[in-house]
Amino acid sequence: MKNVLFLMTLVSAFIFSKAQNTYYPQAFFDKKQAQSMIGFGNATIEGVASTKQKNNWGIKPLLGQKHYAPQGTVVMLFPVTPYFEEFYKMRKKYENKNTTVYMSEEAFKYRIEALTDNRGRFRFEKLKPGKYYLETIVNFTATASYQQQTGSTDTYINNNYQYSTPIYQTFFYNYASANRESKFVEIKNDGELVEINL
């Protein structure tokens, strides 16, 4: 029995490893360069984080509804180094439900974080001129709809049944979801204020 359980565990692990592929950039990560790029300056990036419902996983949402990031949502800022550029290209090319692209732990450390307020606003201060990448995950509750047959209407001609016409009713429900929102931002001058919508 123990052997059977062990074999089943190995098979499950093998299937999972085949379904979940993981990639990392192979470019050299220059931590001195990254540290210098997020060093102190006099520029500011401020903005609002929000998202819209999308038609994912077979759910048909009421498209167009805008959701602001809840208070306390983390917005991350990364310096756009050659390592980050490779990471971003790989993620666009390979990432899907079975494949994930990660940065190295060391590269991930070189970031700045800000928290949103109750209106989804965030602010990064004391930045140097340069190119940055901002990313956040916006959690929200969305509304979707579906139709269900609730009855039918029968048609008779001269008291003889001909056909039935189904009657459908639309039902609405809420569901929890999350979208990744991101943007590249460039600060050209020291002391500049850049305003964005994320």
Helix and strand topology:
Elements: H1 2-19, E1 21-23, H2 31-37, E2 43-48, E3 50-52, E4 66-68, E5 74-79, H3 82-94, E6 99-101, H4 105-109, E7 112-115, E8 121-127, E9 130-157, E10 160-187, E11 193-197
Parallel strand pairs: 1-6, 2-11
Antiparallel strand pairs: 2-8, 3-4, 5-7, 5-9, 9-10
Question: Would you kindly provide a written description of the structure presented here, covering whatever features stand out?
Answer:
This is Carboxypeptidase regulatory-like domain-containing protein. Keywords: Signal. Residues 1-19 form the signal peptide. This protein is α+β, with helices and mostly antiparallel strands and 198 residues long. The protein has one domain (20-139, 178-197): Immunoglobulins (Immunoglobulin-like). The protein has helices at residues 2-19, 31-37, 82-94, 105-109, and strands at 21-23, 43-48, 50-52, 66-68, 74-79, 99-101, 112-115, 121-127, 130-157, 160-187, 193-197. The strands form four sheets. It has a four-stranded antiparallel β-sheet with strand order 7-5-9-10, with no helix packed on it. The chain has a three-stranded mixed β-sheet with strand order 8-2-11, with no helix packed on it. It is elongated, with a radius of gyration of 25 Å. The N and C termini lie far apart (54 Å).
Lateral arrangement of strands in the main beta sheet: 7-5-9-10
Strand tally is 11
Strand content: over 45%
**CATH fold node name:** Immunoglobulin-like
Signal peptide: 1-19
Protein name: Carboxypeptidase regulatory-like domain-containing protein
Keywords: Signal
Organism: Chryseobacterium defluvii
